[in-house]
UniProtKB/TrEMBL annotation:
<dbReference type="Pfam" id="PF01316">
    <property type="entry name" value="Arg_repressor"/>
</dbReference>
<dbReference type="GO" id="GO:0006526">
    <property type="term" value="P:L-arginine biosynthetic process"/>
</dbReference>
<dbReference type="GO" id="GO:0003700">
    <property type="term" value="F:DNA-binding transcription factor activity"/>
</dbReference>
<comment type="pathway">
    <text>Amino-acid biosynthesis; L-arginine biosynthesis [regulation].</text>
</comment>
<dbReference type="GO" id="GO:0051259">
    <property type="term" value="P:protein complex oligomerization"/>
</dbReference>
<dbReference type="GO" id="GO:1900079">
    <property type="term" value="P:regulation of arginine biosynthetic process"/>
</dbReference>
<keyword id="KW-0055">Arginine biosynthesis</keyword>
<dbReference type="InterPro" id="IPR036390">
    <property type="entry name" value="WH_DNA-bd_sf"/>
</dbReference>
<comment type="function">
    <text>Regulates arginine biosynthesis genes.</text>
</comment>
<feature type="domain" description="Arginine repressor DNA-binding">
    <location>
        <begin position="1"/>
        <end position="68"/>
    </location>
</feature>
<protein>
    <recommendedName>
        <fullName>Arginine repressor</fullName>
    </recommendedName>
</protein>
<keyword id="KW-0805">Transcription regulation</keyword>
<dbReference type="InterPro" id="IPR036251">
    <property type="entry name" value="Arg_repress_C_sf"/>
</dbReference>
<dbReference type="GO" id="GO:0003677">
    <property type="term" value="F:DNA binding"/>
</dbReference>
<keyword id="KW-0963">Cytoplasm</keyword>
<feature type="domain" description="Arginine repressor C-terminal">
    <location>
        <begin position="80"/>
        <end position="145"/>
    </location>
</feature>
<dbReference type="InterPro" id="IPR020899">
    <property type="entry name" value="Arg_repress_C"/>
</dbReference>
Length: 149
């Protein structure tokens, strides 16, 4: 697994799971078939600037830094201005083309934003397929994305 993909996965994990220590990351990734060391996780945590916040169950858990939690629209707008190539819709599908290496980040930002129109995303290297709830949602979502450009 490439570093960029691993970082994205770690970002998703801290939003979905209660992860209290580095070994929790290692265990979760091993269950998913990804062999990784605690030392690599330690470096990733520093690079991602993950922080520890109080957990509801007591103790502390890893979380994204505040900037990453609150500036999704700003990051999405910046990424769209920097990497956008094209957008098209067909029924409930929206297909966004980006410069190579940017689609995975775009898909993650879209899913993190939790837009009501979006059912889910599939991201590759330069393409994001957004599955919307219906055709009207796809058209609204396309207009929303175009407004970022």
């Amino acid at each position: 697994m490439k570093k960029k993909e691993r970082h994205q996965l770690l970002r998703e994990l801290v939003q979905q799971e209660v992860i209290q220590k580095q070994e929790d990351f290692v265990d979760i990734l091993k269950k998913r078939g990804i062999d990784i060391t605690q030392a690599t996780i330690s470096r990733d945590i520093k690079e991602l600037q993950l922080i520890k916040v109080p957990a509801q169950e007591g103790g502390y858990q890893y979380n994204l830094p505040p900037e990453m939690n609150y500036n999704i629209s700003k990051k999405l707008a910046r990424l769209m201005k920097d990497a956008f190539v094209s957008i098209d819709t067909q029924k409930e599908f929206v297909l966004i083309k980006t410069l190579p290496g940017n689609a995975f980040a775009l898909g993650t930002l879209i899913e993190t934003a939790k837009y009501q129109e979006v059912f889910g995303c599939i991201s590759g290297d330069d393409t994001v397929l957004i599955i919307c709830r219906d055709e009207d949602s796809a058209e609204r979502f396309q207009r929303r994305i175009i407004s970022f450009i």
